[in-house]
Amino acid sequence: MAEKHFASKRFAEKSQRVLIYVILTVISVIWLFPFFYLIMQSFAKVSNPKSIFPVEWTFDNYKTLFTSDTRPFLNWWLNTFLIALATAVLQTIFVLATAYALSRLRFAGRKGLMKLILILGMFPGFLGMLVNYYLLQLLGIDGSMFSLIIVYFASSAMSYYIAKGFFDTVSRSLDEAVMIDGGSKNTVFWRIILPLSKPIIIYTILISFTSPWGDFMFGNFIAGSSRTMTSADYTVAVGLYKITDMSEFGVFCAGAVMVSIPITALFFWLQRYYVEGIAGGAVKG
Amino acid sequence: MTKLQYLSLTKPERVLVDLGNFFRNFGKGILNWFKSIPLKLLKFWNHTLSVPFKTLEKAMTKGNWWVRGNFLVFGLYQIFHKEIARGILYLLYEVVFIWFFIRTGLPYLQKLGTLGTLSLTSHYMVDPSSGVADGTFATGDNSFTILLYSIVTIFLALLFVVLWYFSIRDAKSLYDNTLVGKMSNNKQFFKDLVDSKYHTLLLAVPLVGLVAFTIIPIIFMVTIGFTNYNGAERITLFDWVGFDNYSLLFSGFSNGGANVVGIFFKILAWTLLWALIATFTNYFLGMVVALLINKKGIKLKKLWRTVLIFTIAVPQFVSLMLINRMLDVNGFLTDLFVKFGWVPAKVSPFQNATLARVIIIVINTWVGVPYTMLISSGILMNIPEDLYESARIDGASSFKMYRSITLPYMLFITGPYLLSQFVGNINNFNIIYLLSHGEPSFSLDKKLGYGDPGETDLLITWIYKMSMESGSTKNYAMACVLGVLVFLVIAFFSLIFYGRTGAVKNEEDFS
C-alpha cells in the first residue's frame, strides 16, 4: 500500500516536471521570437511583413548599411560608442558617489534630499528638454551629439537608488574598524565599500553604457533642433528611428542587428553581475 | 464594532467592513494631519528656522570686528586668519554673483512682470549687401529667456543668502575656537573635506547637475503652465495668463465639437487602469516564471534565465518597433487576428480600442516579466527554507505554502519596488508611443492645439504629442499644466502608499 502511494506520488512529480519544462520551452520560444524575426527580416530582399521567412535571401541590407552616404551607419555607431563610453565613466562615478553619501554619511538635509529626488522623479522629464537644450546652447555645445553626455550624466543623482540599496547591506562594523585605525571616510569609500561592491559597480557601468544606444527621444530632439547637424553626427538610435520613416524595413533590421549584437554580447559576458546587482539592490531601492 | 462581532461576520462582509474602516481612517488621518500643522510650524520655528537668526545675532554682538566684517565681505575673517582656501571661495562667489546680478540678472528680473514688451517678429536683421533678411532677429525681448534667466537669478540669489549665512557662521565658530586656544589652518579644511565634510565633496557635482538639468527645468515647466507659450521654435513674446490654462482644461468647454475635458478624464482613467494592470500582471507573471525556474529538480536554470535576459539586452525601441511591424495592417499577426475574426481584414488591430489595450498589456508583460523574474529569483532564494520545512510537516499543499509563505514574504520586501513600478508605468512612454501611438484616435482637430490624442494614449504620451510632435499646433503651456497634473496624481498615490509600508521607513533594518 505504502509503496503504491510513493509510486503514484513519484509519477505526479514527474508529470509536473514535464509540464514545467513544456511551459518554459513555450515561454522561451515566445521571448526569442522577435529576435528571430529581426534576423530573418534583415536578410529579406523585399520586406514583406506577411511572411516570417524572407522570400528572397540577400545581404544587400547590410551592404547598404555600411556603404550608403545618406545613412553613414559606421559614423553613428562610432558616435554612440564614444558617447556611451564617456557616459558610462562619468555616470558611474557620480551615481556611486551619491549613493555612498546617501547611504553611509549622515549630514543635515540627507532625508530631505532623498525626498526631493523622489518628488522630482514624479514629473514627466521630457517637458524639461526645451530648457535643457537651451542650457546646452548657453554652453555652446548644442550643435553636437556629444552634448548628450552632459545631459545623461547630469541626471546621475536621480538614479542612486539601486547602488544605495546595495551599500546599505554592507556591514557597518567594517567602516568602524577603519575609523578606529585612523582612516577617513574617503578611505572607507575606496578601500572598503568599492572593493566589496563589484556587482553593483559593474551593474551601474552596464546600465549607463547601454542606455545611450536606445535613447531616441532626447537625441532626436537635439538632432531636430540643430541646423548645423548632418546625418553623420547622429547616434544609432536617432539614425535608425529616422530609417523607419523612410520605410526601408530591411535596412532598419540590419542596423538593429548590428546594434544588438555587441550589447547582447556585453550583457551575457556580465550577466552574473547584472543579476546580482538587480537582485541585491533594486528591491530595497 | 467589537472584535467578536467582526469575527462572526462572513468573509465578504469582513472585506466590506475593512474597506469602510480604511476610508474612515483615511479621512481621519488627513484631518489629524491638518490639525497638527500649527504645532509642527511652531516646532519648525523653534528648532530649525530661528537658529540662523540667533547665530547671526550672536555673531554681531559677541564677535570681533573681523567677524562683523563678514556681514559685508564674505570670507573676510577666514582670509585673515589662515583659512585662505575657504575664505577665497566665499569671496569669489560674492564677487561673481554681484557681477552677474548687475550685468544680467537685474535687467531680466525687471522684465519678469511683463515678460517683455518689444516684439521680435518685426525686427529681422537685414543683410546690407543683398537686402535679404537672413533669419536672425534684431535684439528685442524674448519671453523665454526672460523667464529662464529670472529663475536662474532667483536661484543664485538664494544661494547667495545661504552662503552669506554660512560664511558668518563659519567665522563665528572659528573665532570661538581661538578664544579657547584652538588655532585653525588650511590643512584642517582639506582634511575635513575627505572626512567629516566628505558629503560636500561627493555631492557637489551631482547636485549642480541636478539643479541645472532637472530642478530648474521643472520649475520653469510649472511656471510656463501659467503663461500662453505655445512651444514655437522661433520664440516670440508670451504673457502671464494666471490660472487660465487650468480653468480652460476643467471648464468642460466644447471646442469644435470635441469635449477636451471629457478626453482628459478618459485618458486619466485609462492611465490609472493601465498602470494598475501592467504593474500586477508583470509582478505576478514574473514571480510565477521565477518560481517555475527555481523549482527543485528543474535543470538548465541558467539557460531559461538567459533566454529571458535577451529582451533586456536588446534596445527597447528596436524590439517594440519590430512588434509594431508584426501588428501592421499587413503584418502576419494581424493576419492571425483576421483569421480569428477579431478584426476585419485590412484594418490594424490598433484601430479597435479594446483589442489595442489588451495587446499593449500583453506585450508589456513580454517587456517587463524578465525584470521581475530576476528580482523575484533573488528574493525567493533568500526565503528561509525551514519555513517551508515546517509547513510541509504540517501537511500544507504547495498552493497553501505559496499563499501563506511565499506571497506575503515577497509582498513585504518588494513593496517599494511595486510603487516605483506603478509610477514608472504611469509614465511608460516607450511602449505606448512606439506600439499603438495612442491609436485609435479621438479625431480631435489638430489645430486646436491639444495634439491628436487617442484611446490608448497615456497622459504622458498626450503631453508629448501636445508639446513636441510636429504636424500639429503645439500648446506647450497646456502640456505643462498636464505635466503638473500627472505629478499630482503620482504624488497622491505615493503618499497613500508611503504612509502604509514599514519597509520604506526602516531603511537600516536589513544591514
Order of helices and strands of chain B: HHHHHHEEHHHHEEHHHHHHHHHHH
Q: What overall geometry of chain A do the principal axes of the alpha carbons give? A: flat
Q: Which residues of chain B form runs of ≥5 with pLDDT under 50? A: 502-511
Please state the CA-atom Rg of chain B, rounded to the nearest Å: 30 Å
Total domain count of chain A: 1
The count of strands of chain B amounts to 4
Largest sheet of chain A: none
CATH uppermost class of the largest domain in chain B: Mainly Alpha
Largest sheet of chain B, in brief, is: 2 strands, antiparallel
- Which two chains have the most extensive interface, and how many residues on each? A-B, 99 and 93 residues
Query: Which descriptor suits the 3D outline of chain B?
Result: globular
* CATH architecture label of chain A: Orthogonal Bundle
Q: What layout of secondary structure does this protein have?
A:
The complex is a heterodimer of chains A (285) and B (511).
Chain A lengths: L1 H41 L17 H8 L5 H32 L5 H11 L8 H11 L7 H8 L6 H8 L3 H9 L4 H12 L1 H17 L2 H9 L10 H10 L3 H21 L1 H12 L3
Helix pairs in contact in A: 1-13, 2-13, 3-6, 3-7, 3-10, 7-14, 8-9, 10-14, 12-13
Chain B lengths: L2 H6 L2 H25 L1 H26 L2 H5 L6 H4 L4 H28 L12 E3 L6 E5 L5 H37 L6 H8 L4 H27 L19 H7 L3 E2 L2 E2 H35 L6 H13 L2 H11 L5 H9 L12 H30 L2 H9 L4 H29 L2 H7 L23 H9 L8 H25 L1 H4 L6
Helix pairs in contact in B: 3-7, 6-7, 9-20, 11-15, 11-17, 12-15, 13-18, 17-20, 19-20
List keywords for this structure.
heterodimer, A: MetI-like fold, B: 511 residues, MetI-like fold, two-stranded antiparallel ribbon, 21 helices
Q: What would you say this structure looks like, in words?
A:
The complex is a heterodimer of chains A (285) and B (511). Chain A is mainly alpha-helical. In chain A, 73% of the residues lie in helices and 0% in strands. Chain A is built from 14 helices and no strands. Chain A has helices spanning 2-42, 60-67, 73-104, 110-120, 129-139, 147-154, 161-168, 172-180, 185-196, 198-214, 217-225, 236-245, 249-269, 271-282. The radius of gyration of chain A is 25 Å and the shape is flat. By secondary structure, chain B is mainly alpha-helical. Chain B has two domains: 52-124 and 136-242, no CATH class; 254-505, MetI-like (MetI-like fold, Orthogonal Bundle). In chain B, helix 6 (84-111) packs antiparallel against helix 7, helix 11 packs parallel to helix 15 and helix 19 (459-467) runs antiparallel to helix 20 (476-500). Chain B starts with a helix and ends in a 6-residue tail after the last helix. Chains A and B meet through helix 1, helix 3, helix 4, helix 5 and helix 6 of A and helix 9, helix 11, helix 12, helix 13 and helix 15 of B.
